[in-house]
Design brief:
- Strands 7-6-1-3-2-8 form a six-stranded mixed β-sheet, with helices on one face. A two-stranded antiparallel ribbon has the order 4-5.
- The protein has a domain at 51-197: Peptide Methionine Sulfoxide Reductase, Chain A, CATH 3.30.1060.
- By secondary structure, the chain is an alpha+beta fold.
- The longest helix is centred in the C-terminal third of the chain and has 17 residues, at 200-216.
- It is built from seven helices and eight strands.
- The protein is 31% helix and 17% strand.
């Protein structure tokens, strides 16, 4: 994503024009995917957490805030240490962190596997190595950070299922790694797309993903997004 000052300030018109030029690559195309063959059944229980990485966290957060059954989505960092979980440091690509989202969801309304189906279908392109769209670097890599053996089994099985079916033209490069810690991003990154709907990066790269979610997953889509701290 374009670099931002901290705290975030509105860019001057010239800077906005440069950002627009830098982000003219279209958003990743959606893909119609089968649901995971192995998944947890929907059933009442405690709120669960999924941590996913796949490019700029603005778009990931925006997509999952529109998924029915999701209670909260935080933009943040995973894969590195707490000490380096800062936007300026992560942007160097040397911290081990990936821009990620932490998705809190109700397992009675949406399953972990369904979240992964949305993640692979509309939230990002899992065949791009260390990049997404206009963003390049290991901090934009595709990673599923599993919290337990159940999540690991579902994620690994789904990646294998999609690869065997040759769903994508290229092999999936998504890693499935153990979650060692998730660190929320700075406040100005939270709900960024909602606060800045006309920002060029959002218009070109992220709003199409949300429209694709509505089209491909109408039963899972909720028009009113769940904002940070709303519940």
């Amino acid at each position: 994503m374009p670099s931002l000052p901290s705290p975030f300030r509105l860019l001057a018109p010239l800077a906005l024009s440069l950002a627009f030029i830098a982000c003219t690559q279209a958003a990743e195309a959606p893909v119609v995917l089968p649901p995971p063959a192995i998944d947890s059944p929907k059933q009442p229980g405690r709120t669960q957490t999924a941590v996913l990485a796949g490019g700029c966290f603005w778009g990931l957060q925006g997509v999952f805030e529109h998924v029915r059954g999701v209670h909260e989505v935080l933009a943040g960092y995973a894969g590195g240490s707490r000490a380096s979980a800062h936007y300026e440091d992560v942007g160097s690509g040397k911290t081990g962190h990936a821009e990620s989202v932490q998705v809190l969801f109700d397992p009675a309304e949406v399953s972990y596997g369904q979240l992964l189906q949305i993640y692979f279908s509309v939230a990002h392109d899992p065949t791009e190595l260390n990049r997404q769209g206009p963003d390049v670097g290991s901090q934009y890599r595709s990673v599923i950070f599993y919290a337990d053996d159940t999540q690991r089994h579902i994620a690994e099985s789904y990646v294998t299922q999609l690869d065997k079916a040759r769903t994508f033209a290229q092999p999936i490069v998504t890693k499935v790694d153990a979650l060692k810690g998730f660190y929320p991003a700075e406040g100005y990154h939270q709900d960024f797309y909602l606060k800045n709907p006309s920002y060029p990066y959002i218009v070109i790269n992220d709003l199409p993903k949300i429209r694709n979610l509505k089209t491909l997953f109408p039963d899972a889509y909720q028009e009113r997004p769940i904002t940070v701290g709303a519940r």
